[in-house]
């Protein structure tokens, strides 16, 4: 497996021999997957290849079938859950569907980890003002519904994605998972999202980037996993493969199920 | 909240904070309906409605269902419903009677046992709904029969007198007046304040909204939906028992049928108060005001000398018109938001 710089450290997250079965359907089988510190890893594959199952295991939503292992900074962790993953600094940016549409922006921003005052009550004032600050500093959408009291339904797709990304960024994530973050976005919004992904790397943090669009994925990643029918069909460092070669191989994978 | 929090930004009317009307539209609506109805009553029967007695009357009776409605608001915001609270009222009060009248325990032990019974009933409802994913509409009909049946068997279908000479402390707590204000309404105000803080200023409350709005996203963000829903049902269980005690002490007697007739008033208060049947939005203040509107219709119609047969007709009109208005207002607000006003 190709390692990028800083490979002496154990990977931030590593899955070993992970499988996931839903009833009769085997979504993932025997997958090995790792993300190193400061590395952006792309995840490519057709619908049903297992991309989304894989990231849902990484972020603690699904538990792998028995036999699979999850290692965080080289330490094996058995009680993996969303709350555990988030407390260790793994944040996920979902497609816009993971926002609570009827709630104001400030509630969405701090979803699941609302800051509290020393009386144990949630700090609504801080949630509002922090949201306003984040919206203007990090999102910079000039025609945005940036008031923290606005409900999410009133925002455009890009603005919603901005909230989802800013939310992940705010909590000082060590590993950010981006699940098709450019879906349904305009050109300028897409560019902003991709700039954000590059920014993660500059900050010395890691990311997993899932997207259908290889033209979005290729420029920003260090390494690429290609999934097919629940298996890892190939792992490439970007230096090893040009975009044209990659496209060619993806076509072949789609047709025959293997890279060769 | 000032727009000045976001400086140096080109003017975009959507940046403006949502107006008070937009944020509190349904609550303002219900307060308007309440005022209009009150004026109508004053005009129709000035002699009755300028006399304090009528207000005392519904300040005593409205909290009997209004307190449960406040708790039910939490359950409805999570996108669920509880139809078993009338039976919990009876079962919890039965627990009080069994420990005190039959068991000889002091009144406060009776209260603890009663409230614990309510909490247990609520917890069972909550776990069946949240853990097993059974639709609450279905399962709480089932538990409703279960709790009622248990109560009837335990009490052998008989009632218990709860007179002031036997239960002086209970009567002082649940039936007295403070400076002329019936203590029932003081309890309801106190519970409103506690529940407002619980809903709007605690993590639990924040998660109630998230779970009801988009359960998937709440789970993806690590919110424990099972625990949130279970706790909401426990709130209903505990308040139902409190209300059962309030109702029984008010009537000096525990009837094995306690809770009958409470179901629709209570649920109507929640929906009339602007809490959405679809979950994710709602307000305890709205429920509070709506409870008194429903309580006032009852007392108002009778005291205005109108035939009591009109009560249900008036209920129906107020509820249908208010809910239609709320829906229209909300739709209008949403359209304004999408088009940038």
Features:
heterodimer; A: 260 residues; alpha/beta; six-stranded mixed sheet; 10 strands; 23% strand; B: 341 residues; mainly alpha; two-stranded antiparallel ribbon; 14 helices; 4 strands; disordered N terminus
What is the topology?
The complex is a heterodimer of chains A (260) and B (341).
Chain A: E1 13-22, E2 25-35, E3 40-45, H1 51-58, E4 69-72, E5 75-76, H2 82-87, E6 90-93, H3 105-109, H4 124-139, H5 157-170, E7 175-179, H6 187-202, E8 206-210, H7 214-220, E9 223-228, E10 231-237, H8 243-256
Parallel strand pairs in A: 3-8, 3-9, 6-7, 7-8
Antiparallel strand pairs in A: 1-2, 1-4, 4-5, 9-10
Helix pairs in contact in A: 4-5, 5-6
Chain B: H1 20-44, H2 46-49, H3 52-77, H4 85-102, H5 107-130, H6 136-155, E1 160-161, H7 168-174, E2 177-178, E3 181-182, H8 183-201, H9 203-213, H10 215-220, H11 225-250, E4 253-254, H12 263-272, H13 284-303, H14 310-338
Antiparallel strand pairs in B: 1-4, 2-3
Helix pairs in contact in B: 1-13, 1-14, 3-8, 3-9, 3-11, 3-12, 3-13, 4-5, 4-6, 4-11, 5-6, 5-11, 8-9, 9-11, 12-13, 13-14
Give me the strand/helix succession of chain A.
Answer: EEEHEEHEHHHEHEHEEH
The major β-sheet of chain B equals: 2 strands, antiparallel
Over the alpha carbons, how many angstroms does the gyration radius of chain B reach?
21 Å
Characterize the quaternary organization of these chains: heterodimer
